[in-house]
Amino acid sequence: MIGTANEKGENNLAIFSSVVHLGSKPPLIGFILRPYSDVRRHTWENIEANGVYTINHVHQSNIEQAHYTSAKFEADESEFSHCHFTPEYIYGFKAPFVLESKIKIGLSFHSAIPIPANNTTLVIGKIEHLIVPDEVVQENGQINLAEAGGTGISGLNCYYDLSYKEEFPYARKSELPEFL
User: Fold this and answer.
1) 59 secondary structure, DSSP code
2) What is the pTM of this model?
3) Which residues of 12-31 are buried (b: 16+ CB within 10 A; e: fewer)?
4) Is 1:15 a contact under the CB 8 Å cutoff?
5) In the Cβ-directed half-sphere of 131, how many Cα atoms lie within 13 Å?
6) 8-state DSSP, 35
7) Domain 2-164 CATH class label
8) Beta strands in 47-157 (DSSP E)
9) Count of other CB atoms within 10 angstroms of residue 122
10) Average pLDDT of every residue of the chain
11) Is residue 98 over pLDDT 90?
């Protein structure tokens, strides 16, 4: 879920299914913004106005609430209130985090790349804050999304539990396993 606030400080929260890691140096994450139409894009308008936003993982216990943040609310109606989420702020950061989320990312706007093929936009943000509970961070520094109760989304309305399967080393041609 992406959390934003407008210039009046009114909160907005919307679920997005197309979020992707784009790099580590600098730490960038992107998301796809659907085409403009008759429906306003409050998330985008708020990012343009304030330059910051948050990405908040959906916990398994909040799937239905998270799904309904996609309803078309007016700009002055908070999805936080309507969908029973609690806004949480970090001093000096204008975008709201979701208190109920275990994994939270605060981003500053970096760039927007239009995708002419389908009139969407890739919005790119730089990670400024990463909030993760210690108990879901493994010894090697990886975040265990299954332990965090994370949920995956496919398309607009299908949700899945995440489960840890296996971990492999960085793939190098010289280290291919014998069976390959």
Assistant:
1) B
2) 0.91
3) bbbbbeebeeeeeeeebbbb
4) yes
5) 20
6) P
7) mainly beta
8) 52-56, 87-88, 97-98, 104-115, 120-131, 151-154
9) 16
10) 91
11) yes
SS3 140: coil
Residue 123 CB contacts under 8 Å (≥ 6 apart), including other chains: 30, 31, 32, 33, 44, 47, 109, 111, 112
pLDDT at residue 14, rounded to an integer: 94
Measured CA to CA in angstroms, residue 20 lies from 23, 37, 65, 84 at distances of 9, 24, 22, 26
State the pLDDT at residue 37. 74
- Between CA 43 and CA 29 the distance in angstroms is 16
Burial of 51 (0-12, 13-18, 19+ CB in 10 A): middle
Question: Among 85-94, 141-150, 162-171, where is mean pLDDT lowest?
Answer: 162-171
* Backbone torsions φ then ψ of 79, nearest 5 degrees: -65, -30
pLDDT reading at 180 higher than 70: no
Residue 73 has what DSSP assignment? -
Measured between alpha carbons, how far is residue 117 from residues 11, 34, 96, 97, 114 in Å? Answer: 31, 12, 32, 32, 9
> What amino acid occupies position 71?
A
Each domain of the chain, given as residue ranges in start order, spans 2-164
29 Cα distance to chain centroid:
9
Q: Can you say whether the dihedral through the CA atoms of 24, 31, 141, 108 is positive or negative?
A: positive
